Amino acid sequence: MYTPSHFQVxxxxxxxxxxxxxxxxxxxxxDGHAPFASHLPMLYRPDPTxxxxxxxxxxxxxxxxxxRHFASGTExxxxxxxxxxxxxxxxxxxxxxxxxxxxxxxxxYGRAALVESHPRIAAILHETLxxxxxxxxxxWSELVPDDYRDRxxxxxxxxxxxxxxxxxxxxxxxxxxxxxVLGIHHALSQSQQAEDRAMADLMQRECAALQKPK
Length: 214
Hints:
Blueprint: E1 8-9, H1 12-21, E2 24-30, E3 35-41, E4 43-45, E5 55-61, E6 76-87, E7 100-115, H2 118-132, H3 140-143, H4 146-154, E8 156-171, H5 178-189, H6 194-206
Antiparallel strand pairs: 1-8, 2-3, 2-6, 4-5, 5-8, 6-7, 7-8
Helix pairs in contact: 5-6
């Protein structure tokens, strides 16, 4: 990923937070002839020892041919797209200026391995449901009978990706003068679009020009 130094983010806490908050990712692999992509919820699990970059857990339909690419051992790429917003040149203090786009993204690289154990697959599904279900107090086992769950498991493939490289890019107008950053943040924070306001919130946390004195 092309990442100028002023947009580069290496802080593992910031990268893992984005992967958790924006966990519907794009998984890219190669079948030997062309790239192939799937769009999947992917759960990030940090390494408690701190020795690695952590692990991604996911599953896909067995009918999806992508899981067969994993056997080659070729590196795969999971792309996590955070908030993004159009930046109007009218928000800058001095013309001339051109429009651009602010965004935050994380690229996670690793090799995918299939999960073969039936109990482990069930645990991944339960963990996934617990992460997204608005009523997490109700266990998955109480929502569906075991025989129904087991039939569903036959139609999916679960896998995990041991991450060995992370790239983070937070393009938040850090290369602009302070007066422009302030103007961009003000415009985005007043927007009716939730995505714009999410970008304003991220800018508030990350841009030195917007930090309040402690």
